[in-house]
Amino acid sequence: MLSALRLSSVSLSLALAFGASGAFAQSANYAGDVGRILASPAFKAAAAEIDREHGRIVDEGIKLTEIPAPPFKEEVRAKEFQKMLQAAGLKDAQIDPEGNVFALRKGTHGDGKVVVVSAHLDTVFPAATDVKVKRQGNKLYAPGIGDDTMSLSVLLAYVRAMQAANIKTRDDILFVGTVGEEGPGDLRGVRYLFTKGAYKDKIKAFFSIEAGSVAGITNGGVGSKRYRVTFSGPGGHSFGAFGLVNPMFALGQAATEFSRIQVAAHPKTTYGIGVIGGGTSVNSIPVSGWMEVDMRSESVPDLKRVEDRLLKIVQEAAEGENFARSTKEGKITVEAKLIGDRPAGSTDANSDIVQYAKAAIEAGGYKPTYGWSSTDSNMPMNLGIPAITIGRGAPDAGGRGHSLDEWMDVTKEPMVKAVTTSLSIVMAVTGME
Amino acid sequence: MLSALRLSSVSLSLALAFGASGAFAQSANYAGDVGRILASPAFKAAAAEIDREHGRIVDEGIKLTEIPAPPFKEEVRAKEFQKMLQAAGLKDAQIDPEGNVFALRKGTHGDGKVVVVSAHLDTVFPAATDVKVKRQGNKLYAPGIGDDTMSLSVLLAYVRAMQAANIKTRDDILFVGTVGEEGPGDLRGVRYLFTKGAYKDKIKAFFSIEAGSVAGITNGGVGSKRYRVTFSGPGGHSFGAFGLVNPMFALGQAATEFSRIQVAAHPKTTYGIGVIGGGTSVNSIPVSGWMEVDMRSESVPDLKRVEDRLLKIVQEAAEGENFARSTKEGKITVEAKLIGDRPAGSTDANSDIVQYAKAAIEAGGYKPTYGWSSTDSNMPMNLGIPAITIGRGAPDAGGRGHSLDEWMDVTKEPMVKAVTTSLSIVMAVTGME
Q1: What SS3 class is residue A311?
Q2: What is the CATH number of the domain that holds A412?
Q3: A397 and which of A98, A392, A409, B170 could share a cystine (Cβ 3.0–4.6 Å)?
Q4: Residue B2 domain-assigned?
Q5: Pick from A342, A357, A378: which residue ends a domain?
Q6: Whether residue A126 sits in one domain with residue A55
Q7: Domain boundary at B288, B323, B342, which?
Q8: A1 in a structural domain
Q9: Same domain, residue pair A196 and A80
Q10: Do the Cβ atoms of A274 and B255 come within 8 Å?
Q11: Residues of B in contact with A255 (CB under 8 A)
């Protein structure tokens, strides 16, 4: 899929550049393709539209930010975003059964596949959070304004600019507002898109537009597995029933063994216990104790290795406790419940999607950086579908994501330049004509 | 104090029995003393009064049960009990600064010391618990009705019976309703009585009247120490800050080492972790994790041994974690906070107070049993003051203490007999004339 994308986009762009429709490229010229796009009257018209629309991008970003969208409660914001997409020109914008908003913009040489350009609808903030946007000069403060609400507004700006400039792309573009990108959402939106949605086998490339500098290319998806491990036993009075198995001892043993796992620094793999709980009174042998465990890795096999070890450790800890103390009233049992599953993956740094992004970023005068993160792109990366997460902001124009004092700077010139540059990446990959 | 009590009561009873006021006993005749008391017109009058008052005992027990008295919130019930004591004839009933209700009934040969006859005012149930008493035939259901509210009502019956029969005792009797006997109260009422109260150095013997069969003598006080152990560290992002010390790993290590302590079966010693908690999100290295630990023993030195080991273990666990992972953002520290401290102790089975109880129980036609528990008597036992906890109920006439379906059977004949028998124990020890 990756190589098919590269050949087709390159062949098309070279064909246009040399006016030789039948010629096939021998090698890609990413910078050349991007330069051609940037120099085109259509892209210039689109860029001018973004410049004119700057105030509207900000206003729509504020409007969406002020509609709370906690994990699993994105519905109201989704409906508003759907309306906005329709107003921007994509009349068929719909909401799928999982809650994702999606709208197709047809290409000229569609091969039945689509390039997804997405941002996520949800924020990390619970329902009661004050999401009113506060403005201080060019700085806007509000939970979720950067991550990722302003990106939804930028998607709308892309659509309006493309419509205004009558831009044609080779590929069909599926604009998507996803649900469930943040923590507990566990990528449910993008997972649906790739495993159940109407386009599930038709996605040839994937962009997640995120907060952060347009210079940053995330082409690695850190995978994670999260478990809630619960040890249960018969319980009893701390004095009268002393000698019975105690789930806290099994949990302690499991935590200790878990803490001894050795992991490599590269590819980076991590593990930890984030939350523990259980028991009701100090003078009882509790009936249960639990821990929530987080494991992450840049490597699929390394993540599997740590996960397998955890699952073995917790079984051994239960067995060890059943051996150490009396089971006459019942045994310690253990349940390891998967509560988070973000697949790991990466997109080759030499792939077209990364190389076009690099070329467009450099053409915009930025210095590209590459990184790993955990975003909607994890899902296609894991499936081997070319995917990157890119920023749509000027460098250092936002911060404090996932905190109540999250902010972004909406100063016009750097913001418009960043948005325009991010659009040029999408245009290069989708084969702007 | 113990031997003084034995000699004086025995010499007095023998003097009465043989009509020889100057004679000194060479050995105690517990059964004889009890028999003499039971046969006396005064005790018979008191027993008849208890029989007549049965309905009132039950009614006052219900009235007190329906006044909630959670730990640290015994005040309303205490005031009502104070009034009831005054109405029963002890006009000087007072409430001490800790919240205990107390009233002195003077003896005839007071030596400046007192024998305490107590029951506890508090229950284990939180403020919102429905404490309305439900009646099914002779069974009353309500949280706290048995443990220990009906015992307060029985104290009132003792007083009324003694007043009605004009009973004289050698010793001054201090009737007390204590606060803080249950869990979190940590014996604060009885502790105050023995360490700060007006009678703190004047208590020569101690009774705690409790739920349970009058046949059961609790002459052993299981000591307990409870700690809340909190491991704290710098915290951080589970992926980004991986490698930093994690308080949950220190806690796990401490739990594991704690679980390995070997204890003797006799004297019985126990330990356990009852409750754990800490952390806020699965994807963070938490800033703290805690566990609540319970240790108990029938032996003062054995309890100390386990306590010392715990305190060493938690320090070692913190140090171990600081050695295993990076402390560049801060170290794991540990705080072990004492949240419960019930002293251990016991009253010799051959002591007067136990032997009089045995004799009175046998005279009542019951078969005495001996046991260990954790009650208000722990405090005097630990101080070497003769103390026992006795029941005031018929065998199998109550149950489900500390549960919402706690019950007691108030059928008249067995209840009156049990109350009368418990009074006879008190009369024997306080030297009824």
Answers
A1: helix
A2: 3.40.630.10
A3: A409
A4: no
A5: A342
A6: yes
A7: B342
A8: no
A9: yes
A10: no
A11: 248-249, 251-253, 255-256
The residues pairing with A262 across neighbouring beta strands, listed in sequence order, are: none
> Shortest CB distance from A259 goes to which of B249, B282, B294?
B249
Q: Is residue B4 part of a domain?
A: no
Buried b (16+ CB within 10 A) or exposed e, B56-80: ebbebbbbbbbbbbbbebbeebbeb
Q: Are residues A356 and A288 in the same domain?
A: no
Residues B323 and B299 grouped into a single domain: yes
Do the Cβ atoms of A242 and B268 come within 8 Å? yes
Does residue B326 sit in the same domain as residue B192?
no
Which structural domain, as residue segments, surrounds residue B110? Answer: 9-221+344-430
Each residue's pLDDT expressed in tens, for chain B with a length of 433 residues: 222 333 333 333 333 333 333 333 445 799 999 999 999 999 999 999 999 999 999 999 999 999 999 999 999 999 999 999 999 999 999 999 999 999 999 999 989 999 999 999 999 988 999 999 999 999 999 999 999 999 999 999 999 999 999 999 999 999 999 999 998 899 999 999 999 999 999 999 999 999 999 999 999 999 999 999 999 999 988 888 999 999 999 999 999 999 999 999 999 999 999 999 999 888 889 999 999 999 999 998 999 999 999 999 999 999 999 999 999 999 999 999 999 999 999 999 999 999 999 999 999 999 999 999 999 999 999 999 999 999 999 999 999 888 888 999 999 999 999 999 999 999 999 999 9
Minimum CA–CA partner of B279 in chain A:
A275
Do B144 and B227 share a domain, yes or no? no
Inter-chain CB proximity A277 and B277 less than 8 Å = yes
In a domain? residue A160: yes
How many domains does chain B fold into? 2
Strand order in the sheet with A223-232: A333-342, A223-232, A288-297, A269-278, B269-278, B288-297, B223-232, B333-342
List chain A residues with CB under 8 Å of B277.
Answer: 276-278
Does B252 contact A248 at a Cβ distance shorter than 8 Å?
no
List, as one string, the DSSP characters of B294-359: EEEESSHHHHHHHHHHHHHHHHHHHHHHHHHSB-TT---EEEEEEEEEE--EE--TTSHHHHHHHH
Regarding whether B99 and B16 lie in a shared domain, the answer is yes
ipTM of the complex as predicted? 0.77
Shared-domain flag, residues A201 and A87:
yes
Tokens coding A27: 């090698």
Contact between chains at B282 and A296 (C-beta distance less than 8 A): no
**Run of H or E residues at A189:** helix A188-195
Q: Terminus-to-terminus CA distance in chain A, angstroms?
A: 21
What is the distance, to the nearest Å, from the Cα of residue B353 to the centroid of all Cα atoms in its chain? 17
Q: Which of A249, A262, A275 to mutate to test the interface with B (most CBs of B within 10 A)?
A: A275
pTM of the model: 0.79
Task: Indicate the residue of A274, A284, A285 with minimum beta-carbon distance to B282.
Answer: A274
